[in-house]
Amino acid sequence: MSVLQTDIKFITGVGPKRAEILNKEIDVFTLNDLLRWYPYRYIDRSRIYYIHEIDSSIAYIQLKGQIKSFETFGEGRRKRLVAHFTDGHGFVDLIWFQGIRFIENKYKINQEYIVFGKPNLFNGKWNIAHPDIDPFLNETDRPDGFMPLYSTTEKMKNHYLNSKAMHKIIENAYALIKERLSETLSHDVIEAAKLISFQEAVENIHFPSSSAKLRDAQFRLKFEELFYIQLSIVRYTADRKNKLKGFVFSKVGDNLNMFFKKHLPFPLTNAQKRVIKEIRKDTASGRQMNRLLQGDVGSGKTLVALMCILISLDNGFQACLMAPTEILASQHYETLSNMLSNMNIRVELLTGSTKKKKREGIHAGLASGEINILIGTHALIEDVVQFRNLGFVVIDEQHRFGVAQRAKLWTKNNQPPHVLVMTATPIPRTLAMTVYGDLDVSIIDELPPGRKPVETIHRYDKKRGELYMFIRNQIKLGRQAYIVYPLIEESETLDLKNLEDGYIHMLEVFPEFTVDKMHGRMKPAEKDEVMQRFVKGVTQIMVSTTVIEVGVNVPNATVMVIESAQRFGLSQLHQLRGRVGRGADQSYCVLLTPYEISADTRKRIGIMTETNDGFLIAEADLKLRGPGDLEGTQQSGIPFNLKIADIVRDNDILYLAREIAEKLIEKDPKLEQQEHSVLKQQLSRLGGNRYDWSMIS
Ligand code: ADP
Ligand code: MG
Q1: Could you give the CA distance from residue 586 to residue 554 in angstroms, rounded to a whole number?
Q2: Any idea what DSSP says for residue 56?
Q3: Which of 340, 335, 591 is nearest to 461 (CA)?
Q4: How confident is the model over 5-58, as pLDDT tens digits?
Q5: What's the pLDDT tens digit per position in 124-172?
Q6: Rounded distance, CA 544 to CA 503, Å?
Q7: Bridge-partner residues for 245, per DSSP?
Q8: 295: Cβ below 6 Å to ligand 1?
Q9: Which atom number of ligand 1 is nearest to the Cα of residue 396?
Q10: CA 352, 354, 357, 363 torsion: positive or negative?
Q11: Whether pLDDT at 249 is above 80
């Protein structure tokens, strides 16, 4: 056992009681854990301020001066000790609420001290509570350099484990182990990334000797953290790619050719062409494809999916397309069957509301191979659904599905089919590299020609009059409008009430138009009917909850009004906005909020009104919310509670780590070279929660 695994209770200043607190509070058990309990901030202690310089922009301050007198106030638990401290340029109060006796005896009047702490303004006067005080010996002896700050919890503080105590304990631990700290990366990696040694990094992260050294230490430790995640992904992917055989789609045949020549409704965009090529190459390679197709709302992913499905058919395989809602599934069914209507291809729709008899017919048709393409909701992953020869699976809006649901599609043939997952919720590249580590990623970064960007406007909800005029004018021009209410998760009843009130209000405001409503608790058949009426243009105004969020396509709808927009996240707002702007006419998205909104909301609204670019929005969302909250990340098993690196801010280091990991695995796929044994060891130590990437798709 490595000395790094030593129990912290043996370290000077810890002991069994504090060890238990550290175990429970911050998951620190071993020497190694302790050394990796990194400071969250550093304070420059090389500078001494004058008291009159104190202002609210200074978080911590260091002063040099004398205590002129002590004074106690209050009684019992409210008792406090105040030392009147001066540097000859002003006065501050040093305040203690605990250890009063001890402090009074320890510090002497009229002696020179260095005082360090956090200034607070109280009743118009500056004070410093529980400052650090050191005797001032001479100019050269004063504390300098960077003082690290460690995060601590209430419980820890109650046991005198504050930042300073943590620093001391870490100092003791480091002294114990310094000579024996061995390298945690291989030589070639250290070279390639130009890193300082592990020992030097640990020393400088806790006891920085200069700002340059501190930066080097941070770089090294961040790199290491990201590198091991990437190495594990890259190694696993390489392994899986070699192992998992895929059906070989060797040719392009009649189906695709005929569709392309005769039925393609419009020329493909360059991005669509490129992605189809990428998929063709994958499916012909003999390996199983596992590909994520990202494309902003309206970028034409469905057509790409269809063309790849046709390639599958051309090679003698069936295909299926799974969508998260019935509305979307039936819309896909309509689209695809229309486009394929003059071809000899049988497409069927299977959802939860498919009637028994029809359902049985579909089961039989799939088993015999008469049905070529099955479109549906998760009804199509049920065990009773058996294909004759499923070769290609498309999952639309993949983030709406659970991991288990998606994984089930793999078992629908004796060998896993090729899988294409599509999403309009773009994931920033840094995150995609980590969350969807082993998925190949294709991107449609171009909208079909002639689209006018949706104009997005922020309005306070008191000013509805104008908005209603505007909606009326749009409808008179023959267009349609959505009015969306947020889903208030704590209270479905309240949620419906909002929607209901909104609906009645709209009926009153627009007596001359047909208004409909839709929400998640309606039966699928009902929803479908309402949606169909809107699609056909029978309805002009659709009042709805976010059930219309994904995928539905009504090119004639040009107005999207989002009520209580402050309740929506950025991605969701963007997704909703994507429901308009799908035709040739100028579309509008109106974000309604109360007059008073938080700074965060203002930021989100600002981003929405400034850009239509889903990738920019996703980046911004990631910055605002942090990766842990994004869809998909929880299921990924990635340890997002990184200790030092930050997926967003440290993306340069992340790219470097990825690149180096890839080169390394190319040279030594199984990490068998002697030099890499350290990497293997570290990986297995870190790999407590094994990521199963294949199951993500
Ligand atoms: P999404 O990527 O959001 O799923 P869709 O596949 O629903 O987008 O396509 C959005 C709209 O764009 C559809 O009406 C579709 O017919 C149309 N479309 C797709 N590709 C093209 C293209 N190359 N040129 C013009 N229109 C296209
Ligand atoms: Mg779509």
Answers
A1: 14
A2: T
A3: 591
A4: 889 999 988 999 999 999 999 999 999 999 999 998 887 777 888 998 888 777
A5: 889 999 898 888 876 655 455 788 889 888 899 888 898 889 999 999 9
A6: 9
A7: 287
A8: yes
A9: 4
A10: negative
A11: yes
Whether this model's pTM surpasses 0.85: no
408-to-114, 372, 664 alpha-carbon distances in Å: 66, 20, 33
Quickly state the pLDDT bin for 247 (edges 50, 70, 90): very high
Nearest to 567 by CA among 544, 592, 547: 592
The pLDDT of residue 638 is above 60: no
Q: Is the CB of 272 under 6 A from ligand 1?
A: yes
Nearest to 501 by CA among 443, 452, 543: 543
Q: DSSP secondary structure string, 30-51?
A: BHHHHHT---SEEEE-S--B-G
Nearest-CA residue for atom 16 of ligand 1 = 300
Provide the token pair at 268: 């493909």
At residue 618, what are phi and psi to the nearest 5 degrees?
-65, -40
Q: For residue 90, is pLDDT > 80?
A: yes
| Other residues' Cβ atoms within 10 Å of the Cβ of residue 133 | 19
User: Which two structure tokens, joined as six digits, stand for 514?
Assistant: 């047909």
Find out whether the beta carbon of 102 lies less than 6 Å from any atom of ligand 1. Answer: no
Contact 444, 295 (CB under 8 A): yes
447 CA to centre of ligand 1 in angstroms: 8
Strands (E) in 364-439, as ranges, are: 373-376, 390-395, 418-423
Estimate the crossing angle of helix 599-610 against helix 570-577, to 10 degrees. Answer: 30
Phi and psi at residue 386, to the nearest 5°: -120, 135
Can you tell me which atom of ligand 1 is nearest the CA of 305?
A: 6
Residues in CB range of 392: below 8 A, 6 or more apart: 283, 308, 309, 311, 312, 317, 318, 319, 320, 417, 418, 420
Residue-range domains of the chain with CATH: 47-143 (2.40.50.140), 184-209+650-697 (no CATH), 254-444 (3.40.50.300), 455-611 (3.40.50.300)
Tell whether ligand 1 has an atom less than 6 A from the beta carbon of residue 264: no
The one-letter amino acid at 180: R
Average pLDDT over residues 359-373: 96
Dist CA 310 CA 331 (whole Å): 19
- CB-based contact 93:85 (threshold 8 Å): yes
Per residue in 458-502, pLDDT (tens digit) is 999 888 899 999 999 999 999 999 999 987 555 566 666 788 889
pLDDT at 695 over 60: no
SS3 for 87-150 is CCCCEEEEEECCCHHHHHHHCCCCCEEEEEECEEEECCEEEEECCEEEECCCHHHCCCCEEEEC
SS3 assignment, position 297: coil
> For the purposes of burial, counting CB atoms within 10 Å of the CB of 323, is it exposed (0-12), middle (13-18) or buried (19 or more)?
buried
CA 445 to CA 239: how far, in whole Å?
Answer: 30
Q: Which residue, among 241, 62, 273, 113, has the nearest Cα to 693 in the 3D structure?
A: 241
Query: What distance separates the 2 farthest-apart alpha carbons in the chain?
Result: 99
Tokens of 269: 């965009």
Alpha helix locations (H) across 285-380? 301-314, 326-339, 356-368
- Residue 294 beta carbon below 6 angstroms from any ligand 1 atom: no
